[in-house]
């Protein structure tokens, strides 16, 4: 394989991606014409996330408690396309719930951009925020008791948000409620109150409630956290049907490896940023003709060209502070800095 350029010099730190990349590609000074062409291409490029339903761009959330600052989100980038069913995973304290609360319109970011279905979550007025929570997003919480009103039946719980919006007749409403309980697989629970249902049934009714006003996005924070694995599977099936049959975009925060494996896209959050992403696709084995799921893990490359290398890779190769980058024909090589064997 031919090297297009022999390295950007040992000074290419891990945090200086763009400098390293363009330096290697440019080689000798670019002509004025070439620079003008590049500037024009940049101008014509569509804005970041222009076709995404959810777009978070360098999102920051800082909490201050007792004079101590906690940076829960530290410049998080995330794009979710319409119709996706995806999972968010990450260690405790990585910022998942903070992100979900922002997307749900329950909390406001400190800085950055967060847009959902064309709404700007940083600049919404209180009235717009209320409307956003009623009409654009649906939410399912981990605690089953938090999702439903205890003195109403399943059907009444699902009908309530529709009634509050006040745009349909009683008969239409009853049909709509029946259809939603059908989609989530709990039609037999329509006249039961929450205490007369299992935890899994309650969560499936909660999904129907969240879907009641045809939201663009369904958000769920650990919706199967309090359930055993079989019941969790049934609840997950209801999310999948909402996604398949109603086309609702679904984002689920989960610790449950089984749930995370069931979706095509899993994004991991680390220290308040998206760090890696796993995409799964179905392939047919040429020899046996059997379908199998192939999973591939990707690192996230942000708009400044920054890349978070997995800690086990960098530690295994003794990479610290700075690395050597080389642009090859079809990939970029990353080597430990060998100018000082001590790594200092
Ligand atoms: N209201 C708040 N005030 C102060 N700090 C907060 C607040 N909410 C969250 N944090 C802090 O922000 C960081 C991220 O918390 P968050 O709840 O988003 O994490 P998480 O990934 O959802 O964790 P878990 O999986 O345990 O729910 C944590 O350090 C947490 O202590």
TrEMBL record:
Write down a Pfam family by its short name: ABC_tran
Query: Entry's CDD domains?
Result: ABC_MJ0796_LolCDE_FtsE
Stretches assigned to coiled coil? none
Q: Where is the composition biased (Gly residues)?
A: 8-25
The yes or no answer to whether the keyword ATP-binding is present is yes
Instruction: Recite the UniProt keywords alphabetically.
Output: ATP-binding, DNA-binding, Nucleotide-binding, Transport
- Which GO CC annotations does the UniProt entry carry? membrane protein complex; plasma membrane
Record PROSITE patterns: ABC_TRANSPORTER_1, ABC_TRANSPORTER_2, SPOVT_ABRB
Which residue numbers delimit the ABC transporter domain? 57-296
Gene Ontology molecular function, alphabetical = ATP binding; ATP hydrolysis activity; DNA binding; transmembrane transporter activity
| SMART domains in alphabetical order | AAA
Record's keyword annotation contains ATP-binding: yes
Query: Which segments carry the region annotation Disordered?
Result: 1-25
Write down the PANTHER family for this protein, in alphabetical order.
ABC TRANSPORTER RELATED, IMPORT ATP-BINDING PROTEIN
Q: What is this protein called?
A: ABC transporter ATP-binding protein
């Amino acid at each position: 394989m031919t090297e297009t350029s022999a390295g950007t010099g040992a000074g290419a730190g891990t945090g200086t991606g763009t400098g390293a990349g363009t330096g290697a590609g440019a080689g000798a000074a670019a002509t004025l014409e070439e620079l003008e062409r590049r500037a024009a291409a940049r101008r014509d490029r569509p804005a970041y996330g222009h076709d995404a339903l959810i777009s978070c761009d360098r999102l920051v959330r800082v909490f201050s408690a007792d004079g101590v600052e906690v940076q829960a989100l530290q410049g998080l980038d995330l794009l979710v396309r319409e119709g996706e069913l995806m999972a968010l995973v990450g260690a405790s304290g990585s910022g998942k719930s903070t992100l979900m609360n922002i997307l749900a319109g329950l909390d406001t970011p400190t800085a950055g951009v967060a847009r959902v279905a064309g709404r700007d979550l940083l600049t919404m007025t209180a009235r717009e925020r209320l409307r956003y929570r009623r009409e654009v997003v649906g939410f399912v919480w981990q605690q089953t008791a938090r999702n439903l009103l205890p003195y109403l039946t399943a059907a009444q719980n699902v009908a309530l948000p529709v009634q509050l919006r006040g745009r349909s007749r009683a008969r239409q409403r009853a049909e709509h409620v029946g259809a939603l309980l059908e989609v989530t697989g709990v039609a037999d629970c329509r006249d039961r109150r929450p205490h007369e249902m299992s935890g899994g049934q309650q969560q499936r009714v909660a999904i129907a409630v969240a879907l009641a006003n045809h939201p663009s996005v369904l958000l769920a924070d650990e919706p199967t956290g309090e359930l055993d694995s079989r019941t969790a599977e049934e609840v997950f099936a209801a999310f999948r049907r909402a996604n398949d049959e109603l086309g609702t975009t679904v984002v689920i925060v989960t610790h449950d490896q089984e749930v995370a494996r069931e979706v095509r896209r899993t994004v991991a959050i680390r220290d308040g940023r998206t760090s890696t992403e796993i995409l799964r696709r179905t392939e047919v084995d040429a020899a046996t003709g059997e379908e199998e799921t192939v999973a591939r893990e990707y690192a996230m490359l942000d708009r400044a060209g920054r890349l978070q290398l997995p800690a086990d890779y960098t530690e295994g190769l003794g990479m610290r502070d700075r690395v050597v980058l080389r642009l090859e024909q079809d990939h970029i090589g990353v080597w430990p800095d060998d100018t000082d064997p001590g790594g200092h």
